[in-house]
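User: Hi! I have a protein structure encoded as tokens and I'd like to know what sequence might fold into it. I'm fairly new to this, so please keep things simple.
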């Protein structure tokens, strides 16, 4: 047999008694669906298996005493009853007192020694061997538990062999065979309990690592979301307002300059409202009450007053997250057209398919090479990336078709879950 130097999570179970390891295994399985931690068992409370073993020892000891007294003379009773009393006292010390492991071994050695003399002198007490075996295995660890368990087995075999007048070989071999089987069974149970505790610890560690990873991923996703919202509202609005104010400065005090100033003021007011919405859970004003095509047209006309709208299919309600994403895509695309395209015309097309909604924003402006678009930097470059992220995070498809001098088409298609 292999000896085990220690048992993991020992503090979570009773420190002594035959139910220690089995109770530990029960705690592992019984608490796994709750808090994920194994609550410590109070030292003064015995597990059900431990209590049953102690009760069995008491019953067998009393029965053995009665049997011996009825079969022997009072002169013989004195020594045997004294040994039985000493064994009972030592058993109580080992089993019931809150002793640490380093204190259990001497007491257990004394108990086995007294009991070995008792069972050889009075084989009637051999039945108590079962309780003593479990007490020995639970109170001790390592080689000491195997040595004392073997001593208990050999003493029992010697006592029963003596009871059979030295002629019944079964009385000699029976206790040895039972001791070996109990050792194998106990070792298997102990191994399974240790393995279960190890797996439980690994699962707990993995759950902690997963939770930490999810928190980090959530933080990154929230930063990306906020950056997109700021780009599509505050940044785009301020950029357009700045462009109008610069144009007004160049032509002031002409009528066109005054119109540019009026438009810049209007954009700044709208931008201020959008900023307040960001503070209040990034909500979009009128998003729920205004039909989707009209809401998208209003968003585009903040930057492109002459943009046109075409609707295909039968308009219907779409989920709030889809509405929000489409609105932000329109705002970002329209702002890009106003800032960079120098377009004379722009068109917005909204299509309702059986299981999706589509959006196309077209302009006849300068166009560009999408493959050569500048990466995000402090001067811009976030628009296309933010639009693509919004659409793809909802399971949609985003594309940009453009070439220098040929205008631009920004297209998005978003699925409608549960659409009929």
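Assistant: Happy to help. Inverse folding works backwards from shape to sequence: for each of the 420 positions I chose a residue that suits the local structure. Here it is:
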């Amino acid at each position: 047999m292999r000896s085990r130097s220690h048992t993991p999570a020992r503090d979570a179970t009773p420190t002594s008694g035959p139910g220690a390891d089995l109770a530990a295994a029960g705690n592992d399985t019984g608490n796994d669906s709750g808090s994920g931690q194994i609550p410590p068992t109070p030292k003064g409370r015995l597990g059900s298996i431990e209590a049953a073993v102690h009760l069995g020892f008491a019953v067998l000891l009393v029965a053995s005493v009665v049997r011996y007294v009825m079969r022997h003379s009072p002169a013989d009773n004195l020594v045997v009853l004294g040994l039985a009393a000493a064994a009972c006292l030592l058993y109580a010390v080992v089993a019931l007192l809150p002793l640490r492991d380093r204190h259990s071994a001497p007491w257990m050695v004394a108990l086995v020694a007294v009991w070995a003399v008792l069972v050889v002198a009075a084989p009637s007490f051999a039945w108590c061997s079962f309780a003593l075996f479990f007490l020995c295995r639970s109170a001790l660890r390592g080689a000491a538990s195997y040595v004392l368990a073997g001593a208990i087995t050999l003493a029992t075999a010697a006592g029963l062999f003596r009871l059979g007048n030295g002629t019944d070989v079964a009385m000699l071999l029976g206790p040895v065979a039972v001791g070996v089987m109990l050792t194998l069974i106990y070792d298997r149970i102990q191994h399974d309990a240790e393995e279960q505790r190890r797996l439980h610890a690994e699962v707990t560690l993995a759950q902690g690592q997963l939770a930490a990873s999810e928190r980090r991923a959530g933080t990154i996703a929230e930063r990306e979301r906020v950056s997109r919202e700021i780009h599509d509202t505050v940044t785009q609005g301020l950029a357009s307002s700045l462009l109008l104010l610069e144009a007004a400065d160049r032509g002031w005090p002409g009528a066109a300059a005054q119109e540019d100033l009026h438009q810049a003021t209007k954009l700044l007011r709208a931008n201020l409202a959008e900023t307040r919405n960001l503070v209040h859970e990034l909500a979009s004003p009128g998003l729920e009450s205004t039909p989707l095509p009209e809401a998208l047209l209003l968003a585009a006309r903040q930057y492109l007053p002459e943009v046109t709208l075409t609707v295909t299919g039968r308009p219907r309600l779409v989920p709030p997250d889809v509405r929000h994403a489409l609105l932000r895509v329109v705002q970002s695309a329209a702002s890009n057209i106003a800032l960079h395209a120098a377009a004379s015309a722009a068109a917005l097309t909204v299509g309702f398919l059986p299981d999706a909604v589509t959006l196309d924003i077209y302009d006849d402006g300068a166009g560009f090479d999408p493959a050569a678009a500048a990466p995000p930097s402090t001067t811009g470059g976030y628009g296309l990336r933010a639009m693509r992220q919004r659409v793809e995070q909802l399971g949609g498809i985003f594309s940009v078709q453009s070439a220098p001098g040929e205008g631009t088409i920004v297209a998005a298609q978003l699925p409608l879950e549960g659409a009929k």
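A useful reference point when you look it over: The chain has eleven helices and five strands. Feel free to ask if any position seems puzzling.
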